[in-house]
Each structure stands twice: as C-alpha cells, then as structure tokens.
Design a protein that fits this description.
It contains 11 helices and 18 strands. The chain is an alpha+beta fold. The chain has 4 domains: about 60 residues, Classic Zinc Finger (Double Stranded RNA Binding Domain); about 70 residues, 2-Layer Sandwich (Double Stranded RNA Binding Domain); about 80 residues, Classic Zinc Finger (Double Stranded RNA Binding Domain), CATH 3.30.160.60; about 35 residues. The strands form 9 sheets. A two-stranded antiparallel ribbon has the order 1-2. The protein has a two-stranded antiparallel ribbon with strand order 3-4. Strands 5-6 form a two-stranded antiparallel ribbon. The relative contact order is 0.03.
Length: about 280
C-alpha cells in the first residue's frame, strides 16, 4: 500500500547513478541498470536469445510456445501481451484517449498519434532506396516498394485478378458480389467504399475542405482538387497511343479515342431524334 501511495506522492527514492532517473522500487532500478551495463542474464532455451529482465524473457517465450493468455471478453480474440489486449478493447469501446494538439483529432494508440503528427511536422523519415521518395510511416514505404518489385500478393479466387494491397482485393470482391455496405444516413444512398461515402456526405454538409492555392476554388474531394490543379500546372499525363495527343484527365482521353474507333455510343441530339420518331409515326 505504501509503495502504491508513492505513485501519487511522487516518492521516487531510488536513483540511477548513470542517468539520474528515479524509481519507486529498488527492483525497478536494478532492471533499469541493465540498460547501461548491457547485462542480459536471462536467455531463451529455443533461440538462445538473451534478455535484461525476466519479464522480457517471459514475453518472448510466448512467441515460442504460441501462448496467448489475454482474451477479449467481447469477441474472444486472444493476445500475448496485456497491453495489446487493452489497445484492442478500444475497438469495442470506441475509446480514443490520445489527441493531436494541432487539429484535435483523436487516436486509440500513442503510436498512431505519433505517425499522424508527422502530417503537421512534415517529417518523412522512411526513404525508398530505389527512387529516394520519402514517406511518413513504414507501412506507406512498404506499399510503395511494390511499384518497383511489381509484387501483387493478393489475388481473387474467382477471376485470379491480383492486387498490391489487401484493401483493393476487398473492394474488388465487393464489386463482384454487388455489395454496397456503406450507406448515407441522410438519403440512404449506398456505396462500395467508405471513402466514397465520406466524399458523398460532403454534399449534404456543404463541405468543400480542399481548396486550390492558386485560384482558391474549393472541392469536396481531394481527387477533384488534383485534377483541377492540372489546369494551372499544364500537366497532361494521359496520352493517346494513336496520335500522341495529351489530356489532363482520363475521361477526356476516353472520349477522344472514339475519334479513332468511330464509336458513337451517345446520340448528341436526343430532341431531334425524338421529333423524327414522332414525325415518322404521324406519316404512318
């Protein structure tokens, strides 16, 4: 009890001679000192790996045995570490205790908050060795590497189409199944992707959060802003293989291709066609 009360009264009585860090219990100080001495008296009998303290050794042994002693009472998912269980439980409770001091966005873990904060600081510490492109987290770098390797590890069992990302495979499967699991709570319109629902909801809210730095025009979706910015940059990345004419948007290239194919899928004068049909019926 007295040791616990020391947490509230900040009675840190044991200090490290090397870094002056203080501890409530002498045992914690002894564990800490192994950082400076490099001593690893505890070892794993399977991998011969060594550890500075018994708790680290115990956690590692669960990797060897497959033991997952911590279980979620909601979904029965099990974990090797209590910390991982606590983080997982927030998916059920909706708890997001970590918040960004800049934009007040909240997060379920401290690590996710740290990654988010790089958006504001501009820090991009992960670099691609092939093209030197930088990223603000390791996952984005890993996804990018598939551009160079051509790796597409996820495939559809029905049509054998392959994908670089698991989420792209999931979207593909929804399209095949005709599923539209995301529904607008205002107009009941449904969508295949959560991203598309979020963009759609801006229509009801009147939100246009993306704006052009050149002409201040605003847009409801980031992709629409990117397309618009090509007006200012002159970028025309879509090229016709037949005549090498370039376009700033894929849809413009698609319409142009009908010049070469002769395809005319849409009638330009629907009123004229309707009237002609009526006249022919009168004459009959």
């Amino acid at each position: 009890m007295q040791q616990h009360q020391g947490i509230h009264t900040v009675e840190h009585t044991y200090a490290c001679d090397v870094c002056n860090r203080t501890f409530i219990k002498k045992g914690n100080l002894i564990l800490h000192q192994s950082i400076h001495t490099g001593e690893h008296p505890y070892h794993c009998g399977v991998f011969k790996k060594t550890f500075g303290n018994a708790s680290s050794q115990k956690r590692h042994q669960r990797v060897c045995t497959g033991e997952r002693p911590y279980c979620c009472y909601v979904c029965n998912k099990s974990f090797k570490r209590l910390q991982h269980l606590k983080i997982h439980e927030r998916t059920h409770t909706g708890e997001r205790p970590y918040h960004c001091d800049v934009c007040n966005k909240t997060f379920s873990t401290k690590e996710i908050l740290k990654v988010h904060q790089r958006v504001h600081t501009g820090e991009r510490q992960y670099r691609c060795d092939e093209c030197n492109k930088t990223f603000n987290n390791r996952c984005n770098l890993k996804r990018h590497l598939s551009v160079h390797t051509g790796e597409r590890p996820y495939h559809c069992d029905v049509c054998n189409k392959t994908f670089k990302l698991l989420k792209h495979l999931k979207i593909h499967l929804c399209i095949r199944a005709g599923e539209r699991p995301y529904q607008c709570n205002v107009c009941d319109k449904t969508f295949k992707q959560l991203q598309h629902l979020n963009i759609h909801q801006c229509v009801h809210a009147g939100e246009r959060p993306y704006h052009c730095d050149v002409c201040n025009k605003t847009f409801s979706a980031k992709e629409n802003l990117k397309v618009h910015q090509r007006v200012h940059t002159g970028e025309r990345q879509y090229c016709c293989d037949e005549c090498n004419k370039t376009f700033n948007h894929r849809s413009n290239l698609k319409r142009h291709l009908s010049v070469h194919t002769g395809e005319r899928p849409y009638c330009k004068c629907m009123i004229w066609c309707t009237r002609q049909g009526q006249n022919s019926r009168v004459q009959d």
